[in-house]
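Model it.
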Amino acid sequence: MFFRFRCIVLLLVCSVSAPCLQAADFQPVELKPNSSHALRNLPWEFYWQRYLYPNDFNPTTQPPVPDLILPGPRIWNGLKVRGESLGSFGYATYRVRFSITATGERLALRIPAPLASYRIFINGQRLAAEGTLVTTADAFVGRRKSALLAFTAPAGKIEIIFHVANFILYKGGLRSDIELGFASAMQFFGMRYLAVDLFCLGLIFSIMLYHLLLYFLARRNKAVIVFAVMAIDYFFLATLFGEQSILLFFPSLPLELHTRLSSAFAYVLPVLVVQFIDALYPHIIAQKIKRLFWATAGVFVLLLALPVHYFSFYNVFYYGIVGVGAELVSLAAIYRAVREDRAGARLLGAGVIVLMALTIYAVFLFATHSQAGSFLSIGFSLFALAQSGSLAHAHAGLTEENERMHLRLETSRSALDEQRKRIEANLHDSLGGNLTDIKLALEAMADEAQAQGLRKDIRRLDKRVAATIASLRTELLFLEDMQLATEDFVSGINLILLRRYQMAHRPVDIRISAATRAASRQLRDVLPIEHIPELCMIVQEVCNNSLKYSVGVTVWEIVAKENSLSIEVSGKSRYRRTKPGLGQGTIQQRVERINAHFYEVPVSGGYAAKIMLGVFALSV
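Modeled.
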């Protein structure tokens, strides 16, 4: 009589609920040696707002009546109990019973992280508990933690009771992917999940570290640093979403903090993808579109200040609308880049397609209350690999283009050098010839009787023409010496000084050690080739000042080291001076252009000036 009454009550309960199965005692479940069995299509008893323990189901007493019979484990959002649709917050008991043929075997139960705190009893024995299960939100503590529980069923019958409570997330209850199998096989599956998570994390971390080092140690390319930041975002997303990694690295991470962090990294990801493509292929995505994505992500990040169940409700819309929208924009930009034959565009397009498929599937899992687990880590890794490959391809194309430009530059430089030589020859032949003709004409005029009254002026003009011819030759020789300086700086400067002082009929002492000559060939970082002509002009100007303001032997000392260059001149002053020469302003402008430092000491009794580059200049 009692059995009939119980069946009638269960039938009435099921009639007011969603489609369900009739509860039956210990339905059979067949386990296969090397696989797992999902505990679906079994009658799961659901008791709302009750914590029921194994003793409450004592067969000698009247058992509690379930509020619902579910066809499998699922979240309680949307379930109807006593005519009311359940919301997010509350607590409940889930109970399932079944039998297996593998009596006495070591079994294992794999439970994806319930929402949110839980307690598990198997055959009357408490095997796991996470968080604090209470009846109100005041003392509630949530945890996100999956479980792999080993046990035996000597009689071949299994009763599993779950207590689940949620006062944080906008969804509560059990997920659907609860699996049962032999302990050895389930342990292997668990290690496989962990290995996949750790492999993906290591791969993403390596990609992130490589591109950070590439940016700071080699080329300061914007696309590289944006990709490195995106890889950091991938790394933390994979760590937080990974089913096993979160247990390994952050076993006690509070659920609220975990949800806010994972949401923040997920919000930034679509924006970083768009920003990376724009940095890799400039001017291919409109600025307004980028600002729109940044503004949307910023609004959702600000929403993280709200209680978790508010902002987490909108996550599926963000992923589905903003995430997919960013990928569509990215695909459109990549399609344009492919049409323009940009390097790496096809590989990047494949990565974005993988990410789009991942996003759609993740949204589906999220909407169906399942978890992606290691799938997300694999998807992030594949996308990171595709983008890393596209970036490498783009840099390879950029390197080839730079080599072609360098070759063209060398060709142009050789042509300009030849043209300069022709101009010098023309100047020497034409202008020098004309000046020589004028000088000869003046000398002839001075010998004529009619020019006796102008002889003094003719001689003065003759001297001016001679000085002009000498100056022209000096400048032409200076250009040749400067050409030598671009190949061997110290030898070129040495020759410039010797010519200048020889033409001025002044003694000079140039001090250059063998170590300086050897080190001068390794000064490309301190003294790039494009700065050498400017430095030659500075030395020439300082030389002019030295000739103007000093007497006797002038001492020049050139000291070159691995990362520094110093050129110093000193001599006795011709007369008392308290101000620098008029050319110092020009010199200061030149030294600023080559990141050098210059100072001049115009004091009584001596003249000194110094030019410094590299660490010398930085220490002043």
